[in-house]
Amino acid sequence: MPDEKAAFDVFLSHNSKDKPAVRQIAEALKAKKLNVWLDETELIPGRRWIAALQQALEETATVAVCIGENGLGPWERPEIEAALMESVDKGLPVIPVLLPNAPADVELPLFLRAFTWVDLRAGLMDSGVDRLEWGIRGKKTAQTPSASRLPPPRLHNLPFSSLGDLLKGRDEELRKLQDGAATAITQAETIYGLGGIGKTRLAVEHAWRSGNLYDYAFFVVAESPEALHSGLANLARPDLLNLPEYKTGVQEESVAAVLRWLREHNRWLLILDNVDTKEAEQAVVKIVPSLSAGRVLITSRIRDWPASFRKQQIDTLSLDEAQRFILERTADDRNQMEDDQDQALRLAEELGGLPLALEQAAAYIAQRQTSLPKYLEDWERERERVLKWYDPSIMQYPYSVAVTWQKTFEQLRPTAATILRLAAYLAPDPIPIAIFEEGPELVGEAVGLFCAEMEVRFENRPIEEAIAELTSFSMVTRKGYNFIVHRIVQDVIRLRTPEDRRQKWIQQSAIIMYQFAPLEVNDIRTWPTWDLLPSHVYHVIEHADHAGIVYPTVALMSQLAFFLKTKALFGEAEPLMRRAIEIYENARPNSAEFSVALNNLAKLLLDTDHQTEAEQLMKRSLSIIEKVRGASHHEVAIILGNLADLLVIANRPLEAEPIIQRSIRIYEKSPKIHDLGIAFGLGVLAQVFAKTNQPTKAEPLLRRSLEIVREHYPHDHPEVALRLFNLGNFLVSMDRLEDAYPLLRSALKIFKEKFGPAHPKTKTAQKSFTQLQLDIAVSKVQNTSQTNLPDK
Q1: Which residue intervals of 669-759 are DSSP H helices?
Q2: Structure confidence at residue 787 (pLDDT)
Q3: Cis bond leading into 552, ω under 30°?
């Protein structure tokens, strides 16, 4: 605790070059009723100042050592040494304070590292000053936010007040703006990003927290050249710059006078807000080079600016920061529930950390004094109404979420707008650009739909150029060969699509996805592509299924489900398979596709040990396919083979033999492309022979099956591994352990590399190989023991 008899609560030791920032700290602490020693207010002219410093250090209760970009001043080190001596002798607290212009990688002097420091590098915000007060008083005090707010630039027209601690997740961005102001104040800087991301709020908050850098802060809406010139002219008005040209009423004269004033003065910040069109950008670029005495800060959705402009991209808030904002913003107004922490996190996820959407949701909750679960319920049930809700009296944003991107949408050319519309039905995850590049005809059809809807001329434009346009306007975020559309942007785009046209757009998006998704789902070589698609397929089939679109919804469901099955994600695959069967049964009950869907579900059920239902489905599948395709079709052979395999697994080899023999005969009469079917059939028939004590017939079939598969697949393909595994297991059953060893080892290696250690096939192979190793070891021990037995 500080000495209550001390003349001063705190001595501010600092480099004189950092005086503006230290002066602001002094004012903030005085507003908190603290006695502050600052040289410019306490040193009496004409007196011996060294002696006064020494006396002040002896009479102060705390010393704050302020460190900025200029490091320690020449008289600061002796002050600190004296303070440290007092600290040792009397327990005097010493508090290192990092000023707003301190570098991000600041290194405290060795003799200060033992003390807990206060970090003000993100700006002179309430929380930092409160922490410094705590250090000075030695105890926390009840906070009154308005009392600790630091003075802004002395002349300004900032459109709204500081958010203080409600500004979440922007410390690093504020620090970059502070660093940029300190190191390159004459260089214009653009804050760019998606509409509603918080660019304007960040720029204004920087102005509020940087009075030590600027004496003036001017805010001009510059969404068009006309708005830019009008806003600049308005700065000449009597309550701001009070320039005589304003009285003439001639805008050009006022603009020229304001620009001249900016050229002739320094320590000013000019925020040019919402520079979101190319025309506005060109107008800004034209005037900025002449404004080098102060700092120009631009907020824009446009990403591409001249190289002479510094750029900082603003992203969404983290889920943790978004959750904290929701809870704090609604703390006094919402109907509080026990699970508010979880509900706030869920809402943060739903809104994708978008500050505008978070503020709109919080304002909605506060106005209605409703609960977080009720808002989420409204969001799910009436999303369009909730997105359009807007109350300017409690929201410091010019638009609701529903209309905030309207002007940007209107600027997009048809191909870019079409891709955005199609992507609205996919997931808010990285979308492969190849989805659109590999289906140019389908994209062209969609562009035609858009042009007809908007009554504009059709354009044939490269996909890459359209993606670049979307990136330039921050409507998508480019990530290598992928791009991301924010989930709220997707919501708004879907809701903006005319209701009578939505079904067509959903279907077009589903068709493009269906054409791109590889058909050979069970071939691991297609997995690198498939690994990028599940979330997008999920989203588009959800929209399509809800809209009652059968094609290609059900086919996409089946493809995705089969992919998930091959990855052993049975719990995710089964609901999709059952939903596909339900759709086929209602729409196309006598189709080959329905038969395939039944067969696929049967195979999954077999893998999950539900043999009875699996057999029923396979027999039903066989009955349908025989009627649709005829008894000798290769699709009949596929289902016959699967049914025989099931019977072998169920230890019913005698029932399986005629079925698999029939399957092989059908394959043998089919084109050579069905050799893999023969390989499968030979493998099943070999198991039949093995189970009926005919090993001499089984082995050649297993080897022939392996040969066929090797002709079609690379040596490290899982299909090859499966045949190696089957042959190896057969040899183990024949007690040919040494012959089986390399086969099982190779199979296990392939499964591990391709499927990973947790896949059921890998686990089964691992178990067999481990047992084989043990059997070989036991066999060697037994042989050694027999060799060493004494003669009788």
Answers
A1: 675-691, 695-712, 718-733, 737-755
A2: 54
A3: yes
- Could you give the CA distance from residue 17 to residue 37 in angstroms, rounded to a whole number? 17
Give the gyration radius of the chain's Cα atoms.
37
Tell me 789's DSSP state: P
Query: What single-letter amino acid sits at 239?
Result: D
pLDDT band at 167 (very low <50, low <70, confident <90, very high): confident
pLDDT, one tens digit per residue, over 333-366 is 899 998 999 999 999 999 999 999 999 999 999 8
User: Helices marked H in 209-313 — which ranges?
Assistant: 225-234, 251-264, 278-287
Q: Measure the CA–CA gap between 399 and 391, rounded to whole angstroms.
A: 9
Q: How far apart are the first and last CA of the chain?
A: 97
Within 8 A by CB and 6+ apart from 641, the residues are 660, 663, 677, 680, 681, 684
The rounded distance, in Å, linking the Cα atoms of 31 and 2 is 19
Question: What is d(CA 767, CA 518) in angstroms, rounded to the nearest whole number?
Answer: 33
At 477 the three-state DSSP class reads: strand
For residues 580 and 554, is the Cβ–Cβ distance under 8 A? Answer: yes
Q: What is the mean pLDDT of residues 684-706?
A: 96
Q: What is the DSSP string of 441-468?
A: HHHHHHHHHHHHHHT-------HHHHHH
Q: What is the pLDDT of residues 13-51, one digit of tens each?
A: 888 888 878 888 888 888 788 899 888 777 766 555 566
Entry pTM? 0.77
Mean pLDDT of 576-597: 94
Element holding 295 (H helix, E strand): strand 295-300
Question: Would you state the structure tokens that stand for residue 247, as one six-digit string?
Answer: 């009285």
DSSP one-letter code for 791: P
- Quick: pLDDT tens for 516-544: 999 888 888 899 999 999 999 999 999 99
Give, for 482, the enclosing helix (H) or strand (E). strand 482-484
Q: Could you tell me if 190 and 310 are in contact, meaning their C-beta atoms sit under 8 angstroms apart?
A: yes
pLDDT in tens, 384-412: 888 888 787 777 677 788 888 988 999 99
Check if the beta carbon of residue 325 is closer than 8 Å to that of residue 319: no
Q: What is the rounded (10 degree) CA torsion for 731, 734, 737, 738?
A: -70
Instruction: Dig out the tokens for 676 from the structure.
Output: 């893999």
Two structure tokens written together for 517: 């998704």
Contacts of 97 (CB under 8 A, 6+ apart): 25, 64, 65, 66, 67, 117, 118, 120, 132
Amino acid found at 319: L
What pLDDT, on a 0 to 100 scale, did the predictor assign at position 295? 92
Structure tokens at 388: 């359009």
Residue 442 is encoded by which pair of tokens? 């389908």
DSSP string for residues in 508-572: HHHHHHHHHS-S-TTSGGGHHHHTTSHHHHHHHHHHHHHTT--TTHHHHHHHHHHHHHHTT-HHH
Ranking 285-294, 297-306, 387-396, 728-737 by mean pLDDT, the lowest is 387-396
The H-assigned helical ranges of 91-185 are 126-137, 145-148, 171-183
Q: Could you report the per-residue pLDDT of 683-692, keeping only the tens digit for each? A: 999 999 999 9
